[in-house]
Design brief:
10 strands; binds S-adenosylmethionine; 228 residues; Rossmann fold; globular; single chain; 7 helices; alpha/beta; 8-stranded mixed sheet
């Protein structure tokens, strides 16, 4: 069985850095980031620079955070508009967000793609909701919303307690089932998927619903998966 869900894209094939997203995610990411054209973007989880190459191209400035120093060592010569931050997002995000706002800067886009455990994802989201007050529209993508642990972290995060959140769709882009082992994914595992959230500077008037439009697909695939 040929289970490569990544190529060809016919849209993003020219980007050279190894990119841990599926073909449809790459196309969606390219389209979204080009449309948002962030003044400032933040990504948690640089890895080999896959998503960073798009963020760097379409953003004025990017902050890219990774727990290891490999991305900074290997990629910093490629980009003039990227600050590489080495550290654990769980520890560094509160200070980073506080200091950024003290400098009068905001964020238009955040990619959460670092610690994929339920508690890691939940902590990243909750820190953003707690320490960042949007002065303009902010989009957040949480990658791997189809992975059961990540999904749990995303769904359990305190979205509804933050009055600036006006939309959350856990299955904005649905994920994939790796019947065979692929890249760093085990056989019969569930990965990929974009959860998309939007924060606005105005407070929400209505209660928030965290939409999971493909929960039926998730449940059906989960029965045949080894993902916990
Ligand atoms: C799935 S990869 C990111 C893929 C990349 N965004 C792409 O599109 O190709 C996850 C990265 O997150 C980093 N990471 C894991 N836990 C982290 C944490 N607590 N804080 C910051 N980075 C973390 C890992 O070192 C790894 O490089």
């Amino acid at each position: 069985m040929r289970s490569d869900p990544n190529s060809p894209t016919f849209v993003c094939d020219g980007y050279e850095c190894h990119w841990q997203m599926t073909r449809i995610e790459k196309i969606a990411f390219h389209t979204l980031i080009k449309k948002i054209a962030p003044k400032n973007a933040l990504e948690i989880g640089t890895y080999k620079g896959g998503s960073l190459q798009i963020l760097s191209e379409f953003s004025e400035h990017v902050y890219s955070m990774d727990i290891t120093d490999e991305p900074k060592k290997n990629l910093s010569h490629l980009y003039t508009n990227v600050d590489f931050i080495v550290g654990d997002s769980k520890k560094y995000l509160p200070d980073f967000l506080t200091n950024l706002q003290k400098e009068g800067k905001g964020l238009d886009f955040i990619l959460i793609d670092g610690d994929h455990s339920a508690s890691g994802v939940r902590t990243d989201i909750n820190n953003i909701l707690k320490y960042y007050v949007p002065q303009s529209e902010l989009f957040i993508i949480c990658h791997d919303s189809f992975n059961p642990g990540c999904r749990r972290g995303i769904v359990e995060a305190e979205w509804a307690d933050c009055p600036y959140v006006d939309m959350v769709e856990v299955d904005f882009v649905p994920g994939v089932y790796h019947y065979e082992a692929f890249d760093t994914a085990e056989a019969r595992s569930m990965w990929g998927g974009f959860a998309l959230a939007r924060l606005m500077p105005e407070k929400r008037q209505e209660p928030l619903t965290v939409h999971q439009s493909q929960q039926g697909l998730f449940n059906a695939v989960y029965k045949d998966s080894t993902s916990g």
